[in-house]
Specification:
The protein is an alpha+beta fold. Helices cover 29% and strands 30% of the residues. It is built from 7 helices and 15 strands. The chain starts with a strand and ends with a helix. Bound molecules: pyridoxal-5'-phosphate.
């Protein structure tokens, strides 16, 4: 395992002060960013989502500059060379026992940073997927944000491992497609890029947003979130998944359906690699 550096509230530390509501109740948010040569990539997209999550949980927004200062110090301090994966976790800190949080919250910032084993500009081999037996619960109040309650993802990742596939397509309670266990999904149909809407469940990924707002158009494609079912995926010309750490990854199989060429996905992967270099 590559060595991981940890910071708590700006100090190098590998232990968490207790109590911490992030641990006790999952009362917090996180972002996983790529860092190259000390520079966090696409920080603006991560910051937009973090800000949305903070507003949703009632975290004081005036804490954002201090969080950014800690992020940048960690990048300079331990990710100055090569590619790193940095996780920034913000919890509501300590307080009295009970779900009701103290007002105003005294946020706690935990950062971990480790070298990345691969160059994220180089796509991973195409993934083989199954449809998960587990489905994501519906919770519109938390949909889209990257909060700390990730037990569903832990269960889904265990299911993927047991089933011996690279990842699973996970549906919502209504049978609609939401995401994979740890990435957003896109399908290609003609010159359209379609990705599930995330009103009831799922995480609105930074790479999903980049594709919707920038990369799709740069590749001459129309990109849009829509309600999608498993049959839409099976009927797609191409399928790919995306997140900050893996980038854009083509799908070679979903259950019985196979794909062996991904011209549009390759075009997007090239645009993405170029975007990371900028
Ligand atoms: C369930 C889930 N959906 C989507 C994403 C994609 O988010 P991002 O593109 O910001 O990495 C992640 C990332 O970990 C995830 O765990």
């Amino acid at each position: 395992m590559p060595e991981t550096a940890y910071w708590v509230d700006g100090e190098r530390a590998a232990a968490l002060p207790l109590p911490d509501r992030g641990l006790f109740y999952g009362d917090g948010l996180f972002e996983t960013l790529l860092v190259v040569s000390g520079r966090p990539l696409l920080q603006g997209l991560h910051w937009q989502r973090l800000q949305r999550g903070m507003a949703r949980l009632g975290f004081p927004e005036h804490s954002l500059p201090a969080l950014e200062a800690q992020l940048l110090a960690a990048c300079e301090g331990s990710a100055a060379e090569g590619w790193h994966r940095l996780r920034l976790t913000v919890t509501r800190g300590g307080g009295e026992p009970g779900y009701a949080p103290a007002e105003p919250a005294q946020l706690r910032c935990i950062i971990s940073c480790q070298p990345l084993a691969r160059d994220p500009r180089i796509p991973l081999p195409a993934a083989e997927l199954e449809v998960a037996e587990l489905s994501w619960g519906s919770q519109p109040a938390l949909a889209g944000i990257k909060h700390l309650n990730r037990l569903e993802q832990v269960l889904a990742a265990r299911e993927a491992r047991e089933r011996g596939c690279d990842d699973l397509v996970v549906l919502g309670q209504g049978g609609d497609v939401i995401s994979t266990t740890s990435a957003n999904l896109f399908l290609v149909r003609d010159r359209w890029l379609l990705t599930p809407t995330l009103e009831q469940a799922g995480i609105a990924g930074t790479r999903r947003q980049l594709i919707l707002e920038e990369l799709g158009e740069a590749c001459g494609l129309q990109a849009e979130p829509v309600a999608l079912g498993p049959a839409d995926l099976a009927a797609a010309d191409e399928l790919f998944l995306c997140n900050a750490v893996i980038g854009l990854r083509a799908v070679s199989r979903l259950a019985e359906r196979r794909w062996d060429d991904w011209p549009v996905t390759r075009q997007l992967q090239a645009a993405y690699a170029e975007r990371l270099d900028r």
